[in-house]
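Box S1 | Example of a co-folding query
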Amino acid sequence: MSERRYKFWGWGYEDQIPESGEAEATVARVSEITGVRPRAEMRWPAIDRVTLPDPRVQPPSVLAGIASTDAHDRAAHTYGKSFPDYVRAFDHDFECAPDLVMWPRHERDVVAVLDWASDVNVAVIPFGGGSSVVGGVEPSVGEGFAGAVSMDLRKLNRVTDVNVADRAAHIEAGALGPVLERQLKPHGLTLRHFPQSFEFSTLGGWIATRSGGHFATLQTHIEDSIESLRVVSPRGTLETRRLPGSGAGPSPDRLFAGSEGALGIITSAWMRVVPRPVHRRSAAVWFKQFLDAANAARGVVQAGLWPANCRVIDAEEARLTGVGDGSRHLLVLGFENANHRVDSWMEEALQCTADFSGISDESSGDAPNRSGATGSWRDAFMGAPYVRETLIAHGLIVDAVETAITWDRFPEFHRAVRDSIGEAILRVTGVPGHVTCRFTHVYADGPAPYFTFHAKAPKGGAIQAWRAIKAAASEALLAAGGTITHHHAVGRDHMPWYTKQRPALFGYALAAAKKELDPAGILNPGVLIGNGS
Ligand SMILES: Cc1cc2nc3c(=O)[nH]c(=O)nc-3n(C[C@H](O)[C@H](O)[C@H](O)COP(=O)(O)OP(=O)(O)OC[C@H]3O[C@@H](n4cnc5c(N)ncnc54)[C@H](O)[C@@H]3O)c2cc1C
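Box S1 (continued) | Returned holo structure for flavin-adenine dinucleotide
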């Protein structure tokens, strides 16, 4: 039986392509709501229409068994899943493909690849699931290298130890979300880190990007679940100490969490895991005013209730995802626990939302809620990656900027960022676009807003138009006091704004750390640490 292959250009497996009628229906529905008109023609990319540059390097014989120059393999490791990644793939442009793809089977293979690459000046791009939306896995490394290798870690995918007493598990970094959850399930445990990209992203990728997962409050980012890490760098291998907490200087785990493959390759981690929840309540609460919904979310977290789900979705986004009619804003609330009933928490949270005129139209008991507005929103959320690529294929610019801001600045911030995206769309495409906002995560001191936009892609100028919109949004959110990313990471796309945002001295310290760990600078060049800073 032949192996099910991933698409070389998009989300999921090759067989996961919508039927033509289904694709057209999706496009028509989104077009009607957003007012953005699609292009009629479309064709999915085909590998026999891709011309790849000849590999500039060959693997040494000791690494030949884990190296691949197969065209599908090289194409599938050229891009992540950002808008410009899709556009170039649809154009069959794979000019920056890696020369080789390496598939380490053990940590010692990772060491051997780094030793060889350091010796022959070949750049190494760590690759987990390739779901980066910020240019994190693209082997565009410039002229200074003899070649570029994409190192795919997905064969390092085992849960090798489970410590039930400590509620911790030792997991190899290349395990995809479902792969690691399947291995934890027989122990009654779960990592419970479910980014929207869960199905096709890895533990190592999550740690390297400080991904944001299932929990909308408290343990929002993956690093909150790290107990210890094992990292291979060109200078050697290090492992941090397994501890429930430590005040011994700056945390080495925190240095590598968010290091985006620029400081070392994370090969495994001890992760804090939890029993699977059995008690659940969820509710959809509707508001006439967006700021009332935002303030209700603030009220809930500031009351110390810490729901697992606490997502404000503006009226237009609720309409777009099919959960509302566009007249009311939605707050999705969810509580879960393995040991205690959560009804009283939900009752208190609903009380907070009532203080801001929220109207709850449903709430359910212990079963995971798959019905009503909360269930519909969840289904739309999981299907969104497939919808997105269908829309891009039909000539729409579909993307998002995600950020965080304190509550005191939120109202002005929301207006400034939304307006700047809308104005930029009109300026560069000549027609109005569609901009919506939701909260992905909520803190006691502020929300993490996520602005989704739809615009018409000018024929032949889609990437330039996207770049201009993205730049306007990034400038606006930085000027209004936000962060260039709350959880999508920096990659190559956010570098100009990340460099502005971080203190210059911190940039130098990071560059010095890289020099120590990666003296030849072969690890993911151009990401996180620019030239000279
Ligand atoms: C549809 C969609 C939905 C998404 N939803 C979310 C979301 O809800 N939350 C969120 O946080 N992000 C989300 N993302 C972004 C992306 O999924 C995350 O950044 C994710 O953590 C990347 O994991 P990955 O395994 O795919 O890593 P990759 O994309 O393969 O790599 C990401 C970066 O990490 C580095 N890297 C990967 N593995 C390792 C390793 N073992 N050691 C060192 N460096 C490594 C790479 O070099 C690269 O710089 C989404 C993306 C898409 C396309």
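Residues 80-81, 125-133, 136-137, 153, 173, 195-197, 201-202, 204-206, 208-209, 211-212, 260-261, 265-266, 385, 487-489, 524, 527 surround flavin-adenine dinucleotide (CB under 6 Å). The chain has a mean pLDDT of 95.
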